[in-house]
């Protein structure tokens, strides 16, 4: 006779205890990993990673797992909520986030990380070269001190920084560097999202993962337009040399006196640098045998604003991907008269929430509107992680200190807003008629 499974609170208290053991076991590994990232690309990752936390990932445990009673418990719980006569919801996807910042951004990066955290995802944090090594160390130490990050083994810090010039091509190179590390860290994420320290989420990760679980995994979300007026020409025709690519000190961008013609071997598309890209696209750029990604990179190395041109142009000029692109980066921005995104304030709250976007940008550091988003939208307590279905703690301020199955999502109103936006974008042929349109 089997003893009946203990009630839920007892099981989760046990979870908290066992995790401390896992923490000890994984601490060394995370240290090794940070070091291996920092010490040039010749390093190889350790041959056998430690087992994943059994409470977060009950389905990914080896067969001979002594914790299988807990697994049964989670299963049973799950089919009381899911009616057996209905099809189960699709299993949630996994996202790979690259979060970049510069000098004195480590606090903002951590805040953003806490507000977009989910154990299913992967996070790579990058403080660029102008930031001090002590900032980078602080970031790595803080990340290492958070139990769930160690249990899920999904937050890494780039130890050897890149130089990323905001307007030059070194930013693009740094993004591709991050994407390639993420490809190597994990074979199971589905979308790549590039965030800067000035971005902030408008939905919880449960909302986002829930909605994305219903979409085909080859879909890409990238603002793009082939319209090139005088303003765009001014961005595309100058020839620059980005010092971030070859000098180790920050110096001014070098502009050539001549301008050049627009290319005719491919069609240029411009967009915003925020996007949600499928894993397939990232593999195409980094591992693919088609030469378009490299040709474009070399062309763009001397173009200002290359980050906002690369992915739109790549996707629209590729037969493989031009039908997978949705003309919206899922990010809200508001533009001033000079077509520059202006900082978002409290007065914009209603607009950006109603837009249904998943992220908004840019925000000033510690702007009060971020506290409002935390309070009203993410229900996040300052200094804590955004709560989700995996958080089982009982008191409000430690809800994510006790955890359970990361596959269980509790989407809220944010999911409905995002769904509305996607339905609008996908309806009536809006999707096709806005895709890679040549103007
Ligand atoms: C859960 O599913 C299993 C097998 O599908 C079934 O035997 C069991 O009765 C279900 N449990 C509950 C509580 O519905
Ligand atoms: C499960 O589905 C059956 C038949 O469709 C229905 O009668 C029952 O009320 C449902 N139960 C729950 C908990 O949704
Ligand atoms: C992206 O495109 C949408 C729809 O065309 C627009 O509303 C939004 O402002 C654009 N976002 C950015 C960041 O350019
Ligand atoms: C990724 O985000 C960083 C930080 O905002 C930005 O500098 C870079 O241009 C972005 N890269 C791409 C390819 O969009
Ligand atoms: C995609 O590429 C193919 C082949 O180049 C072309 O026929 C098709 O019109 C393109 N589709 C879009 C939406 O641009
Ligand atoms: C949680 O909040 C309560 C009051 O809101 C406080 O008494 C308690 O010390 C807090 N616990 C932790 C772990 O911060
Ligand atoms: C879709 O078509 C219907 C009827 O033709 C129209 O009322 C609706 O506004 C359209 N929606 C969009 C997003 O274009």
Automatic annotation (TrEMBL):
Main location class: membrane
Q: Where in the cell is it found?
A: Membrane
Tell me a GO cellular component: membrane
- TM regions (residue ranges): 20-38
Family matches, as InterPro entries: GLCAT14A/B/C, Glyco_trans_14
- Kindly give the membrane topology term recorded for this protein: Single-pass type II membrane protein
* Keywords tagged on the record: Glycoprotein, Glycosyltransferase, Membrane, Transferase, Transmembrane, Transmembrane helix
GO MF: glucuronosyltransferase activity
Provenance organism: Camellia sinensis
Q: What is this protein called?
A: Beta-glucuronosyltransferase GlcAT14A
Q: Does the keyword Membrane apply?
A: yes
Q: Does the keyword Transmembrane helix apply?
A: yes
Residues covered by region (Disordered): 42-67, 79-98
């Amino acid at each position: 006779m089997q003893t009946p499974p203990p009630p839920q609170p007892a099981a989760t208290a046990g979870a908290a205890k066992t995790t401390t053991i896992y923490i000890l076991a994984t601490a060394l590994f995370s240290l090794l990993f940070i070091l291996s990232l920092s010490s040039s690309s010749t390093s190889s990752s350790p041959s056998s990673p430690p087992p994943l936390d059994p409470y977060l990932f009950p389905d990914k445990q080896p067969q001979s797992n002594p914790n299988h009673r807990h697994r049964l418990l989670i299963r049973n719980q799950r089919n009381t909520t899911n009616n057996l006569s209905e099809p189960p919801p699709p299993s949630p996807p996994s996202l790979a986030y690259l979060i970049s910042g510069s000098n004195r951004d480590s606090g903002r990066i951590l805040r953003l990380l806490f507000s977009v955290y989910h154990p299913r995802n992967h996070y790579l944090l990058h403080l660029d070269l102008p930031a001090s090594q002590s900032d980078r160390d602080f970031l790595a130490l803080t990340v290492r001190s958070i139990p769930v990050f160690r249990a899920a083994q999904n937050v890494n810090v780039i130890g050897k920084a890149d130089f990323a010039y905001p307007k030059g091509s070194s930013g693009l190179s740094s993004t591709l560097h991050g994407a390639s590390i993420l490809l190597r860290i994990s074979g199971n994420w589905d979308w790549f999202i590039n965030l800067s320290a000035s971005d902030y989420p408008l939905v919880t990760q449960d909302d986002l993962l829930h909605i994305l679980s219903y979409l085909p995994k080859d879909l890409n979300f990238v603002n793009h337009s082939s319209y090139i007026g005088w303003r765009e020409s001014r961005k595309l025709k100058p020839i620059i040399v980005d010092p971030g690519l070859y000098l180790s000190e920050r110096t001014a961008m070098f502009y050539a006196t001549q301008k050049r013609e627009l290319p005719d071997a491919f069609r240029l598309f411009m967009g915003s640098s925020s996007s949600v890209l499928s894993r397939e696209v990232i593999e195409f750029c980094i591992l693919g045998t088609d030469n378009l990604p490299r040709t474009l990179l070399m062309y763009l190395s001397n173009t200002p604003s290359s980050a906002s041109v690369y992915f739109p142009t790549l996707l629209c000029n590729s037969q493989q991907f031009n039908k997978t692109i949705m003309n919206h980066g899922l990010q809200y921005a508001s533009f001033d008269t000079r077509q520059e995104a202006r900082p978002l304030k409290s007065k914009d709250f209603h607009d950006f929430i109603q837009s249904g976007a998943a992220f908004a940008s840019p925000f000033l550091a510690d702007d009060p509107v971020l506290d409002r988003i935390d309070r009203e939208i993410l229900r996040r307590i300052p200094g804590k992680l955004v709560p989700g279905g995996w958080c089982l703690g009982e008191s409000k301020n430690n809800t994510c200190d006790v955890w359970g199955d990361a596959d269980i999502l509790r989407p809220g109103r944010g999911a409905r807003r995002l769904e509305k936006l996607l339905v609008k974008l996908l309806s009536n042929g809006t999707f096709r008629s806005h895709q890679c349109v040549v103007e």
